[in-house]
Amino acid sequence: MLTTSGMLQDKVVVVTGAGNGIGRAIALAMAAQGAAVVVNDIGTGLTGDGLDDAPGQRVVQEIQAAGGRAVASKDSVAEASSAERIVQTAVDHFGRIDCVVNNAGILRDRIFHNMSVADWEAVMQVHLHGAFYMSRAAARHFKEQQSGALVHMTSTSGLIGNMGQANYAAAKLGIVALSKSIALDMERFNVRSNCISPFAWSRMTGSVPTDTPEKAARVEKLKQMTPEKIAPVAVYLASDAAKDVNAQVFAVRNNEIFLMSQPRPLRSVHRGEGWTPETVAEHAMPALRSSFVGVDRSSDVFTWDPV
């Protein structure tokens, strides 16, 4: 039900990819905390193909049935002009824009040597370009009103690594850099930009293979991590309570919230006379090797069961 004095009372929020899964859960939670919500979803399948005209409208109806305010948008984030229309929908219907949640995404997983240019470009266009287009469209309004929040969905596929996802991983790690740059450039206007790396069972993770008993067991554990577990952090980051939280990357895994590291120097070696290829091999690499980062997948790092 709608909270009449929630953390987002009188705020206006755009949530992209909000017709299903994590986006839907975030849109409902934003509305429950008092926000007016633009529910953006073009209604395509997991790969960006196919069409279902109704998912965004169904979420709008859920919000309205609970006493909230919402409007549907079917424009694509993957084009600059349509991203502008999504943000303008918020302004036209609710008079302002206070937060954009960049959640829209597709998957086209391929082992790297089989990945086509089309697979690469489609995923980049929705995830990385879409986050840029949406953030840029909102930035002018944020600057004028001297406030605003951006919440971007990243992934441990980019932060750590996963097989068969070069396109997705590159886009998702690019979003972290985009978010940090926005935070640096827009902080002077009281605009914040943060990332969430969500662990949740949704259409995006529904393609995880279950061809061995071990993989099937892991999928059953993943199903405990519902999209609703992600929404509270997104609501918080959109709210004034997070006014001092900027340029951070959080991961949410069932009932756990992590602050993720960002690249910083780990160790150094110095040679006053400079380096040759031979001394790099003989001195630098042996000295640095104990701090090398492994060729890890996300599941190699998050090895424990969700709690």
UniProtKB/TrEMBL annotation:
Protein known as: NAD(P)-dependent dehydrogenase (Short-subunit alcohol dehydrogenase family)
Gene3D superfamilies: NAD(P)-binding Rossmann-like Domain
Domain of life from the UniProt record: Bacteria
Family per record: Belongs to the short-chain dehydrogenases/reductases (SDR) family.
Family annotation (InterPro entries): KR_dom (IPR057326), NAD(P)-bd_dom_sf (IPR036291), Peroxisomal_Beta-Oxidation (IPR051687), Sc_DH/Rdtase_CS (IPR020904), SDR_fam (IPR002347)
Domain Ketoreductase: 11-207
SMART domains: PKS_KR (SM00822)
